């Protein structure tokens, strides 16, 4: 029986996928549920499992865009599993004449090739100024122009560079130095193309503006230093990071400034009474933005646990479309890569994104005195069509206030209870 394997639907809005990588070769025997391919949609990379055991015949090439429901391979379920311990690929290699013993006997013939190059110096010696060699007058002019003779085509006898050649030579903006100048052209994955499309759309279709502030991270650092070991021991190895503080500060600020937690839909505004926070994480296929659902109801442990779960799925290539759908606001942390300041691009159709950056010790004025504190610049990019300056600045100030006074504003003056210790 020949089984036709069709592309399953990764989500309601996805009409086609791209074959990113075949994990098997044409003619291989596959087991049921074995991963046979990785397919890219515009939202995630998913594995395609075999629906039955048998010999596989591929019907699409890597890089092909195929419609959802289209046949990508055939599986002959009546075919018997090959016997023997050695895989077919190893058997082929064992009898390959190119890898067998006689190949070593060819090596002496390869070494004989340099003998043909011995006469090459003979014709060059026939003239004082060989091809590409400038005359004394031409060399002086080229030296004054800082032009290498190798970049000039001589018009004199035997290719000699004449004085006129040197006078007419124009300095190059970049003379090749003999180093590598190769190029490589590769097709972007469907996911990366979709990310590019969305980023360009965000720039072109929104009235995006960015406002900045800075945060003194000393209070958070003090809390983390005091409680991180107990937090990790109590909650099964989950660390107390910065993201839980920022997520809690953002959900508080979204309640104070609900316009930031809304989005445009044509001529209408859609406001949300919940906070689904998209967290940008880096995966093997590029930037992923999975969503922490109802973050306003989560504890510090709940936020850290959910972020860790989603980051592991992104790292292992197991993130799903559902994991990345429906966020109302985004947090991105460029600081982990060393970014000091940036203007993050809105994640459409959302109306706001908060950018975190690296923490650097800087001198600041505290109660009329200069002190050195760990400082972070934060940036809020927002859609000015729906969010005014008062809301955007007020939102960022509210985030700053919560981060600089987490004990009172995020923990209700009871850190052990907030951290569930």
List the helices and strands and how they pair.
Layout: E1 2-6, E2 16-22, E3 29-30, E4 35-40, E5 45-49, E6 54-58, E7 65-67, E8 71-76, H1 88-95, H2 107-111, H3 121-124, H4 136-145, H5 163-168, H6 190-205, E9 208-216, H7 218-234, H8 242-256, E10 262-265, E11 268-271, E12 277-279, E13 281-283, E14 286-288, E15 291-292, H9 300-315, E16 329-333, E17 352-356, E18 359-366, E19 369-383, H10 389-404, H11 406-409, H12 415-418
Parallel strand pairs: 12-16, 16-17
Antiparallel strand pairs: 1-8, 2-4, 2-7, 3-6, 4-5, 6-8, 9-19, 10-11, 12-15, 13-14, 17-19, 18-19
Helix pairs in contact: 8-9, 8-10
Description:
By secondary structure, this protein is an alpha+beta fold. The protein has three domains: 94 residues, Beta Barrel (OB fold (Dihydrolipoamide Acetyltransferase, E2P)); 45 residues, Dihydrolipoamide Transferase (Irregular); 212 residues, Chloramphenicol acetyltransferase-like domain (Chloramphenicol Acetyltransferase), CATH 3.30.559.10. The longest helix is centred in the middle third of the chain and has 17 residues.
